[in-house]
Structure of Probable membrane transporter protein:
Amino acid sequence: MLFLCAMVGLAGFVDAAAGGGGLIALPAYMAVGLPMHYVYGCNKLSSAVGTTFSTARFFKNGALELKVGLAAAAVSFLGSALASQVVLLLPDASLKLILLVMLPVAAGIILTRRDLTGPDRPALRDGAGKWWKAAAIGFFIGGYDGLIGPGTGTFAILAFCVLMGYDLRSASGNAKLLNLASNYASVITMVTAGKVLYAVALPAAVFGIIGHLLGSGMALKKGVKFIRPMMLCVLVLLLADMVAELFA
């Protein structure tokens, strides 16, 4: 149990700054022998609780535009619901191949786009157009979450930064709100289905809260110098995981 709690805490730290905490938390829950449905249920609960605290911290520090984040979060439900239907029609290998194409592209954007390391660019979200952009981000990120899942937060940060001109710090804050809505929607489903072991999920959630608070604190303090390399690490881990599964 101590191993699990430590890993969930580490996952919270990574997730709060750059997304992708599930890459650490899910294998940890699996390692203690939980059935897969309970793995997902416990992970969603601990992740949702931790994300609540990191989202609140970003908001408190002015690194989250509430209306934009809420708009994206609301539309993400639709994208996720539609993608969940599509995923039933696609073979598992096809989904992994899609991700294998997307990951190097995302890494290339992080490495080559100088605007990712620059200041906030509000001109990219002037007028009513910003609501369409927020809705598009919510729809496609929600769709990605429903279709594939891992690394959703990382891609959300990239989208807010590239498409709407937020600096990485604020993009990370907006992405947290989008993830928060998605997490709690999943929690409701898992709790209703009886797929959460509270004796496991709640202690892990405490460590997840600690990780999220530490990770969000570092992201807010260090900004792009911390968030950018963390995002690259998440993408490398995700790529390695997908390659290993494809050739296992």
